[in-house]
Amino acid sequence: ALMSVGVKGILAVGTDLFHIFAKAIMGSVLHRKLGNISVALAATFLVGSLGGATVGGYINRTLYEKNPVLSDAFITTVYVFMLGFLGFYALSDFLKSQKRAKAQAAQNNNKSRSVKGEESMTGLSQKIQSVNIPPMLTFDEGVVPGGRRISAIFLVISGFIVGLAAAIMGVGGGFLTFPIFVYGLGVSSATTVGTDIFQIVFTAGYAGLGQYAIYGFIFYTLAIGMLLG
């Protein structure tokens, strides 16, 4: 939206990261009260996301220094492919879930229904959680009896991917974190939303201030206007 009204791509990225950083603080306070934040998952995730944000910021600044037009084209292209892929993936998952729901209704078989409050996991997430590489993290204790466990290495890798995308695209990474956590890692929706908003405070804060603000790529007046909205 910012680029469509004439804001340079790199300036739009830095401004949005700064605005998201401030906005995520308010969201984190709310979700902390609701008990939706897993500090262990967020802290491990940040190990990777801060590294990814560093690489993403460097790529954007390097392209801008070479050619501002190339920088804008690169950011736009990443957006098209990333959002296009996630959109088709989400639509495909929705259609599959609809077919499963109709099949269950036709058979009138409730034995396979999940426990109240518990979400079923994908085959991928079950395989990932079966990998026992220390250190292991426990989460979703309030959703599943005894909670679920996952190797920290998968959180670090996921964090790097999200941090890289966040720094390049100027987003908090939520649209990536949600499918990665829910479909890939098997984290419940409630924990994913709260934990994601919490990690965004640090990922967007570091990327916005450390990768863009100190280089003069933030339009502060614009960011404040967006925050008011």
Give a short overview:
The protein is mainly alpha-helical and 229 residues long. The chain has eight helices and two strands.
Note down, in words, how this protein is organized.
It is a single chain. The chain has helices spanning 9-34, 39-66, 68-107, 123-130, 152-169, 174-185, 189-212, 220-228, and strands spanning 136-139, 148-151. The chain has 229 residues and is mostly helical. The chain has a two-stranded antiparallel ribbon with strand order 1-2. The two termini are 14 Å apart.
Helix tally?
A: 8
**Major sheet summary line:** 2 strands, antiparallel
Q: For the CA atoms, what is the radius of gyration?
A: 19 Å
Strand content: under 5%
Global geometry: globular
- Classify the helix fraction into a percent range: over 70%
In angstroms, what separates the terminal alpha carbons? 14 Å
Q: Please state the structural category.
A: mainly alpha
Compute the number of strand runs: 2
Determine the mean pLDDT: 85
Low-confidence stretches: none
Order of helices and strands: HHHHEEHHHH
- Cross-sheet strand order for the largest sheet: 1-2
